[in-house]
Amino acid sequence: MKILQVNVVYKEGSTGKLVYDLHNQLVENGHESIICYGRGKKQKEKNIYKIAPEFIMKMQSLRSKITGFAYSGCIVSTNNLIKIIRKEKPDIVHLHCLNGYFVNIYKLMKFLKYNKINTVLTLHAEFMYTGGCGYSLECKKWISGCGNCPQKGSGRPSSKIFDRSSNEWMLMADAFDDFDRLVIAPVSGWLCERAKQSPFLRDKKIIVVTNGIDTENIFKPTSYLEIKKKLKIENEKIILHVTPNFKNPAKGGAYVIDIANSFKDDAVKVIIVGFNGDYTSLPKNVIPVEYTKNQIELAKYYSMADLTIITSKNETFSMVCAESLSCGTPVVGFQAGAPEIISIKRFSEFVPQGDIDALKDVVRNWLSKKQEYGTEISNEARKIYSKKQMYKKYSELYNWFLERGE
User: Fold this and answer.
1) CA angle 18, 19, 20 (to 5 degrees)
2) Which of 238, 247, 258 is nearest to 355 (CA)?
3) What is residue 49's three-state secondary structure?
């Protein structure tokens, strides 16, 4: 079996790591795996293709900001990708995140459709059915057709001048129309229910495939004494918040600071991994840490913490939730869509979005529960979120296509 995956990044970010893990699992199981990606440095590995130089994609980004069309253009990179697909003749093309100005989504989808190529589309975000927004938040316009976008210039990755939401929605609808050899794979049950409401996805085969992480070698209870010593932490309780961008309002950083202030008279430290704001205004019990791409280091922070908090406005999955639980640390936070769905209920609790008083109560209640559960949290989580479980689900999807014999 030959599988060709397409993603905006490779080895980097949450989706890049997922693609890398799936690639290795396929090779280990005797299949041929090919990766085509857009952003990041060029990899010198067999069957790994970077389809365009960074300069071209920066020009495409500029084009998007001027015209308002974020998912078209990309002539060079899209043609390169199509040439590779024609050359490799994969049994299945597996699409992941197609944002990042590296491919013309509409042209790629129509090529796959008209050439009757078996296709799996993993939904990591919402833009493939909203036509533009990665997170549609409270907006429901995508169910009937967009226009007058409330996120123009902010949530949409395009122009602050032109509102192309209606045009992009119709272009996406046309790309999916009559695409029979397609399976949609949302990464969470919450995202699945959203996809089923889309007028151009509701008639497709939709199967949830939960994201997987390396629970055997990385995300498991890990020694953290050197980090604790480095941060000068003694016997204080530790609250952990992990984010790729603390300054992004959608990640709810202000709530984390509010929680820290409510514990400043207690023996509690709040560690923020991914802090990129104003250090001078932080409460004294906050320890800011730059975002790390080192997953082993990240597992040490999870293992050291007594509790992980999630304050995002919206999440389509939650790698933080999966990683924290796998390292044996409970999770609490705001209801944000997927986290409360994909979490293990006995080891987590979520309160209504924005209810900071309720969240503070929950944090106090959970701060001492980690010891109560011992290794039970990690043992259960490492089975649920294992990358091998993810591979098994995708393997079943791939085989379903091949068994059709079309």
Assistant:
1) 90
2) 258
3) strand
349-389 pLDDT, tens digit per residue, is 999 999 999 999 999 999 999 999 989 999 999 999 999 99
- What is the reported pLDDT for 196? 94
Q: Residue 97's closest CA among 49, 145, 134, 146?
A: 134
What is the Cα–Cα distance from 251 to 312, expressed in whole angstroms? Answer: 4
Question: What residues have CB less than 8 Å from 96, skipping those under 6 apart?
Answer: 5, 6, 7, 8, 15, 18, 19, 122, 124
The H-or-E segment that residue 66 falls in is helix 54-67
Per-residue pLDDT at 166: 78
In the structure encoding, which two tokens stand for residue 317, read together?
């999955």
C-beta separation of 163 from 184 below 8 A: no
DSSP 82: H
Which pLDDT score is estimated for 150?
Answer: 61
Give the contacts of 142 (CB within 8 A, at least 6 positions apart): 126, 129, 130, 131, 133, 136, 169, 198
Phi, psi at 103, each rounded to 5° = -155, 150
- 């079309």: which residue's tokens? 406
Q: Which of 320, 328, 209, 212 is nearest to 256 (CA)?
A: 320
Q: Work out whether the CA dihedral 364, 367, 372, 373 comes out positive or negative.
A: positive
Q: Are 62 and 54 in contact (CB under 8 A)?
A: no
pLDDT < 70 positions in the chain:
150-161, 163, 405-406
CB 184 within 8 A of CB 128: no
Torsion of CA 366, 379, 396, 117, to 10 degrees: 60
The pLDDT assigned to 54 comes to 82
How do residues 263-287 score in pLDDT, each as one tens digit? 977 899 999 999 988 888 899 999 9
DSSP E strands in 106-180: the ranges are 119-123
The span from the CA of 223 to the CA of 299, in Å, is 9
